[in-house]
Give the backbone structure.
Amino acid sequence: MRVVILNSPDDVAEYAADLFTRQLTRKPGSVLGLATGSTPLKLYEKLIERTARGELSFRRASTFNLDEYLGLDGTHPQSYRYFMNRALFDHIDIESGRTYVPNAVSADPRKAAEDYEQSIREAGGVDLQLLGIGVNGHIGFNEPYSSLGSRTRIKTLTARTIADNARFFADGEFQPNLSLTMGIGTILEARQIVLLATGRAKAPAVKDTVEGPVTAKCPSSALQLHPAVTVLLDAAAASALEEPAFFQHIEELDQALSTSISDAAS
Ligand code: PGA
C-alpha cells in the first residue's frame, strides 16, 4: 500500500485529481470506478475545473459507480445516480450512456447485479477505482463481515451507516436500508485503486485498513491484498497511524527517485 499523508483535504483532492488526469492522459478510453459521499466532492470539483480548462477530457472514458440505494431511481434526489449527475457528469464531457450506476429499480435486482458485473467485464475491467471509506471500514456498501470475495449484490446497511447517511434525508423521508453494491472481490479486480480519507472521524478505520489485520470486520483491510493501492490521507485521517513518519519517509524517497529519473531522462 502506498500511504500518502497530506496537510489538508484540498491537498488530498489535488493529488487524486493528478492521478485521474495522468490516467486519462495515458489512456483516454479509461474505465473509471467512481464513488459518492462527501469526501470525493472536492476531487470532482477539480476534475470539472480541469475539464473546463481543456487539461482533461472524459470524451472516451466510461465510469462505473460502486453502489446505489435499492429502490431509488435516478430522479430521486437521494439516489447516487442523481448525486453523480449533479456532482460530476452534468459538468464534464462524458457520454451519459457510458456512465454506469447499478440498476436499483430492476424488478430482478439479483439479475441487475449480475448484469453490472457483465458490463464491467465487457468494458474491459476498471482501470482506476476511487474509494471513500466509512467510519466502520466499509468500501462501497460492503459493510463489516461482508465476504472479502463478494461480487455485486444486494447488501443490508448497518444501523451505523444508516445513521451516518441520515443527514442527507429530510425528516420523515423514506431512507432505504438496502443497496446494490459492487463486492469486495469486484473492487479488488480494478487495476489500480485510490482511497481517499479526510477528517479525524475516519482515523480509526484508516488505521485498521493500513495496519491490519486483514479481516471482514474491516472490509477496507482487504485492500492490503491488492498490488496497486494508493491511500490519500489528510493529517487528521492519518492521526491514529502508528508509523506516519515511515510512510512520509517512503514518500520523500519516492519523490526524490522520480525527480532523479526525470533528470536523467532529460
Ligand atoms: P463520506 O462517505 O465520504 O460521506 O464520509 C464515505 C463512505 O461512506 O464511503
Notes: Residues 37-39, 132-134 surround 2-phosphoglycolic acid (CB under 6 Å). The first strand starts at residue 2 and ends at 6. Residues 244-265 form the longest helix (22 residues). The mean pLDDT is 96.
